[in-house]
Amino acid sequence: MSQRPLRRRLPRDWSGVLLIALALVSFTLGVIGFREYLGPGEDWSEVIYQSLQLFFLNFDKAPDEDVNLPLQVARFGAFVTAVWAILKAFFPQLRQRIRRWLRLRGKACAVILGYGPSGQAIGAALWQRDCGIRRVTAVHRTVTPELAARARLDGVLLIEGDPSDPRIMDRAYAAKAERIYVSDPDDLRAIDTAVAVRQHIPEPAKDIRVVLNDSAVAAQMAEASAAGFLGAPGLRWFSVADETARLLIADARFDRFALESGAERMHLVIVGGGSQGEAVAVEALLTAWRTGLGPPKITFLDREIGSVEARMRKRLPAWFAESGGAALYTGARPDLEFRECDAGTIDIARDLCFDGLRERVSGWVFAMGDDGLNLRASVVLHRAVMARHVDPAPIYVRIPTGHVEDAPDLSASPLGLAHTFGSIDSVIARSALLAEDPDSVPKILHEAYRKAEQEMFGRLSEVWSALPETKREANRALFRHAVLKIEDFGAVAAIRRDGVPVTEQGLAETLRRVDEILAYDRIDRGADARAWLKDGATLAEEDLRTAVLIRDAALCEHNRWTVERALAQFVPTARPDRALRDDVRRRHNNMHDWFDLGDAETRRYDLVMLRVLLSQKPAAGQVLHKAARVRTVFLAVDGTAKTCIAHVSGSGAAAGVDASELHLHLNARDDPASATTLVPAVMRCLAPHIDRRKQRPPARIRFDFPRQPGERVLALANLVAEELRGKLPETTRIDAFWNWRAAGSPVVGVVGHRDLTRFGGIGPVTERLRQCFMDLVMKRGVEAMVTGYAPGADRAAIEAWASLGLPNPSLLFPFAGHCSEGKRVFFTENPSDATAETTIEEEDIKKIADRSMLTICDGHIGQAGELLRRTNFLVFVIEHGGSTREGGTLDTLRRAEDIQREVILIEPRL
Q1: Nearest Cα residue to 259 out of 761, 714, 630, 795
Q2: Where do the RCK N-terminal domain residues begin and end (predicted)?
Q3: FRET label pair with 377: which of 78, 99, 253, 526, CA 20 to 30 Å apart?
Q4: Quick one: DSSP state of residue 533?
Q5: What would the DSSP string read from start to end of 203-268?
Q6: DSSP letter string, 658-693
């Protein structure tokens, strides 16, 4: 996740260089001038002495002599040099005051009160990012040479003094600044400074932003200060932990990984339950609600887990099952689990505290306060994943404040299982903290929400400026969930230049048409959308799916809103009765199951935001996909021949049709000797799928790893990813999908007839098997195949499997023996009936499968039994109606059905 700003070299002190240059030029011109002035016969030592004397003593000119031009220039240059040197050496405060005064002339000025890690990051980001600020002054208690160097690096004028001292604020011309940032490692001291600033500059319109460390304090500070507690009204409160968490969740997309891996819900494991871990948990719980997923699960691992749980219970009482009807209903209650664990000593493969965490986890976040411990524990987990003790899932390691600009990314590869996050410079540079208006997107969407509300219900809610801070924060959380809402509706989200997500315009009209005819109080859990219509209304067949999507979107939004209200300390009333609502005691009557809300209007309110999002117009020239379409491409690479063959899955978007996502399976039977030499071949295969002249570029490219990749295959994938980044728009997301299973992935077996005449021959069967294998790899994670080697279906399966670059198959032979030359041979039929086609020499088999993957069975019955024992799925190339013999295709199908093995039939097409 870390996107570190570009590295910069420390700028040269040009004032010193110019001073030296001016002195040298003045001295040289003085030597030339005095040589002429004193005459050619004068000794050189006297000429040099006279030239040096210009810098310290007065030049006595004879009344009857003219001063030549070089000497005249040297006289004035020496004077300027001397004055400049005196000011630079003995009057730095005057110099600084002049710089401050010049810096504050005009607009676009900012003052940073507190130049610690956060303040330094703000200064660096303001220098690099176009955020309406061009000149920055910072105040810090103690200015060290390192801080001064950092300030010079970022073009910041650094002043030594107490940031909360009004006299220092006057020296920094804070009252004239466009924006004031307050930052201090001590949150209480930061609040003290903020109060002092507000008292010194009482203008309500003054833009003052306070950066705190503690997530919980920042979340509640605006409400507390408005009620007369700590702080001062009219300030904007930010938390580094919150900003880090928002960027992490937006980048990591744990919700998407849960959906794509087939999990029942998003399950996030957070190692470290401090302020950063708590902020990540809160952000994940606010933005992880997706249709198709249950309530999210968060597992905390910490040495002091009791205090972590107590703090979460105190902050979020409605998230836990309490007596008196105060608990959330089941559909909106996240599963919060707390486990005591010492991350520094844990044995992931064997420790009981990891039971239940070794499979189907959506992501790992290491957010302890110790950088070294975060790194060490994450490496241990990564090693356990590679050793197949734990299912793979994205790993995110926090690298917090200590490194500042030089925070390491830890990985030079764009595709990897482990990532870093939380580098102060990268977090600040990307956060809303720097924006001219941090609420610009929420304001736009809130105004659109008001218009949609008036259209749907005939009333207008409050404007943004009239909203209390609690409602503003609720709306901010709602809008951060915007992209997920668009995706849940089967659309593709793109970001407009102003930051607003947009999608294809036709969806808005479809939603509006179906929404207008739905009677929301009739919607139930069933699948028959026709029963949900208003009296006399009819629903077209193509709109049935839209009606179900509307219901699911409303459910999802209501669950998310309920959790957000719980975060704001609200608890549900005993029943959904408006008369029981009490905003002072924070009891809300709508924090109940959506189906228990009998009022149609209340239910329908959960669709307003989706209607707003689908109605946003794209920017001029912005390219949008009309629908979410996935194309899957299998790339089989041959390291020896340096070739690549591509096969497109028929279950997704066909080649040449716009695809919003491109899923790439990069397969090699053996690790290639050199990944670099294969890149051109792979890019030639991908060229038709990324050609902008023929189709819209994909919004996302996903490298799929349904089996653990070898070192060189992973290197090849990273090289291809880098090439793709150079050929696709910056908005195209490129990431990896890790979906193998530590316990072992499913195995497919193939059984079929020898005579394929009714199927159209071996070619059509091979293609149908290839498509079948691609589906099984994509949807079931299959990574191995077992079959025989008989002519017909078996050999078609081997060819189809090999064409996808998948691992060598396991082969079963019913008979084995030796030929007349003494060589070992294998038979696909009884040796007495063997022909040249059914007799295979051992050397030929080695080209197809390793010796360890070869099994000799006891006849055809034993071969069928071995196939059933080894496989999870069975593909039958079968024609019903023929004779049945023991161990044959029809007999094996019967046995598979008897043991309830999942089967896939490939039959002749009529």
Answers
A1: 630
A2: 111-222
A3: 253
A4: B
A5: -TTSEEEEEES-HHHHHHHHHHHHTTSSS-TT-EEEEHHHHHHHHHHHHH-HHHHHHHTT-SS-EE
A6: --SEEEEEEE-SS--S-SGGGHHHHHHHHGGGS-TT
Nearest to 890 by CA among 898, 880, 900, 903: 880
Token pair belonging to 107? 């607009």
358 vs 459: CA distance, rounded Å: 51
pLDDT of residue 298: 96
CA–CA distances in Å: residue 158 to residues 94, 99, 154: 14, 11, 10
What gap in Å lies between CA 75 and CA 52, rounded to an integer? 11
pLDDT at 104: 54
Among 418, 431, 419, residue whose Cα is nearest residue 480: 431
CATH of 747-906, one of 3.40.50.300, 2.60.120.260, 1.20.1740.10, 3.40.50.450: 3.40.50.450
Residue-level pLDDT at 529? 92
Q: What tokens does 382 get? A: 């990564």
| Distance separating alpha carbons of residues 738 and 745, to the nearest angstrom | 13
If we measure between CA atoms, which residue out of 100, 107, 102 comes closest to residue 161? 100
Measure the CA dihedral 291/295/301/304, to 10°.
140
Q: Name the residue type at position 282.
A: V
Length of the chain, please? 910
Q: Give the model's pLDDT for residue 486.
A: 94
What are the residue boundaries of the structural domains of the chain, listed by start? 14-90, 104-240, 253-398, 440-556+576-615, 630-738, 747-906
CA distance 610 to 485: 7
Fold match, 104-240 / 747-906? yes
Fill in the amino acid letter for 486: I
Write down the pLDDT at residue 256: 95
H/E stretch holding 357: none
| pLDDT for 405 | 45
Q: How buried is 7 (Cβ within 10 angstroms: 0-12 exposed, 13-18 middle, 19+ buried)? A: exposed
Judge whether 445 and 500 are in contact, CB under 8 Å.
yes
Contact 577, 325 (CB under 8 A): no
Cα separation, 167 vs 161, whole angstroms: 9
Specify whether the CB–CB gap between 249 and 421 falls below 8 A: no
Token couple for 629: 């379409």
Using H for helix, E for strand and C for coil, what is the string for 321-342? CCCCCCCCCHHHCCEEEEEECC
Distances, alpha carbon 725 to alpha carbons 633, 728, 734, in Å: 18, 5, 8
Q: Which one is the CATH code of 253-398: 1.10.1790, 3.90.320, 3.40.50, 3.40.960?
A: 3.40.50
Identify the residue whose tokens are 């109060």.
Answer: 195
Block means of pLDDT (10 residues each) for the chain, 910 residues, are: 45 68 88 82 81 79 76 86 79 63 66 92 83 86 89 87 88 84 92 91 89 87 82 88 94 95 95 92 92 94 92 80 69 92 84 86 93 90 92 90 49 82 88 91 94 91 89 89 93 92 90 94 92 92 92 95 90 90 90 92 93 92 88 93 93 88 92 89 94 91 92 93 93 92 92 92 96 95 93 95 93 89 88 87 83 87 94 93 82 93 90
Selection from 503, 536, 534, 502 nearest residue 519 by Cα: 534
Distance, in Å, from the CA atom of 843 to the CA atom of 488, rounded to the nearest integer, reads 54
**Domain 104-240 is found in CATH 3.40.50.170:** no
